[in-house]
Known about the structure:
Elements: H1 2-18, H2 42-54, H3 59-78, E1 89-91, H4 94-106, H5 118-139, H6 149-175, H7 181-205, H8 212-235, E2 238-240, H9 245-262, H10 273-277, H11 287-290, H12 294-323, H13 329-332, H14 336-351, H15 353-358, H16 360-384, H17 395-414, H18 426-458, H19 471-478
Parallel strand pairs: 1-2
Helix pairs in contact: 1-3, 5-6, 5-7, 6-7, 6-9, 7-8, 7-16, 8-12, 8-16, 14-16, 14-17, 16-18
Catalytic activity: CDP-N,N-dimethylethanolamine + a 1,2-diacyl-sn-glycerol = a 1,2-diacyl-sn-glycero-3-phospho-N,N-dimethylethanolamine + CMP + H(+)
GO molecular function: diacylglycerol cholinephosphotransferase activity
Family: Belongs to the CDP-alcohol phosphatidyltransferase class-I family.
Amino acid sequence: MGIRSCEKWIGFISWKMKEGYSTNYQVKNMKKCQTLDLMKHMHVQVLPFFNRQTGGDSLIDFLVDFYFLTIYLFMREALPGLKKYKYSGVDHSLLSRYVLKPFYTNFVIKCFPMSMAPNLITLTGFSFVVINILTLLWYNPTLDVDCPPWVYVSWAVGLFLYQTFDAVDGTQARRTHQSGPLGELFDHGVDAVNTSLECLIFAASQNLGMGWKTVMVLFASLLTFYVQTWDEYHTKTLTLGLISGPVEGIVILITVYTFTAIKGGASFWAQSMFRTVGIPHYAFIPDYIYELPFNEWYMVQGSIVLVLNTVQSSINVIRARRTRGDRSRGALLGLIPFFFTWTLIPAYLYLNPEILYNHLVPFVFFAGLVNAYSVGQMITAHLVKLPFPYTNVLNLPLAYGVFDSAGPFLKETFGLGWPSALGGGVYQVAYLFCMLGVAVGVYGSFVVDVIVTICDYLDIWCLTIKHPWNEEEEAKKAN
């Protein structure tokens, strides 16, 4: 819709220029607008033309089109920043350095033909996670029952293949001379969506069920990915520490899935960890700690790692900005959008226990897309040197859901509130799926528009190689 909207508006601009109306509509060409003041005289000049061109579309359609035009032109203005793109990454992981990278370089990369585009490798790897999710929805949609052992093995294999394909796409890009900003954007976009999907698979492997435990796992995973991307935006470098989610985190998950299969099901993780490993119940160990099951100890461990990674990323950002002579306070404000979203999410789930305990899976899909959209905006801004994106339009339906559900709650608790327009029960479930549909549409439109715009500007294709590298021809050009 975005591209068609832009063409419609560019047609309007051309028409006004032919009529000599150029004071507020200065356009150097149809692909790069230097100055555009479409807001002035909008009601008088734009809306009548819009109605003639579209047969009287609604004002909402008009505003949506104007929104997409703004994005389109803003991107066009910033596209020259893509020419300055240069990937920068640091990986401190010992596991990656001494085990995984030699495996990828000496064996895995040789399995892919030179004609295969790097982004296609990334997408193929993601397809294994999609298969895992479909298996989960068939065997354990409630996240709290034991599956056949082979299901857990398939999750381990699928995640291993995803990690492997995701790791070698950069090597494939370098050896085919297809490295570029689109690859980083595509890679981060896929990783962002995978993060929430893997939360569901992990919850199913631990029999966490639909409830606050799964929500806590989702919060920790999405915060880790958001902070890592926020770190990269400000430091201009992707930094992976000694322990990171893309390396050690995934290896731990693969191990957990495999061990779950060996033990015959996820019920194993509901046992007391101390008792299972043979630690005596000493008097100084409180009962609630001694009886804490494996799956809750994982949360304790994950919380510690989450805090350490967040603090380390904050230090990286502050240090990088001070080195450049910038103030660090503005950078730290970039964490507010995430915590604003995560103020709404628990509030919505608390006010709607039907969603929390019976329809959490589609809500996790929605929350994952909200985070993926924020991350996608950050990566795009990083690539084309745009200001940090503080807004996320997908918070609006979530905020409305909270507002609508808060009225009856306040009325019942304090005697002062307002009636719910959505009501309860099936209508809240329907609204959840509407939110999910909006998220798919918004994020999908964003991804398609950004990919098409970048491909058009750089004269490349996304999933195939448009200009194969020819060493002899390049040598002749150099001479």
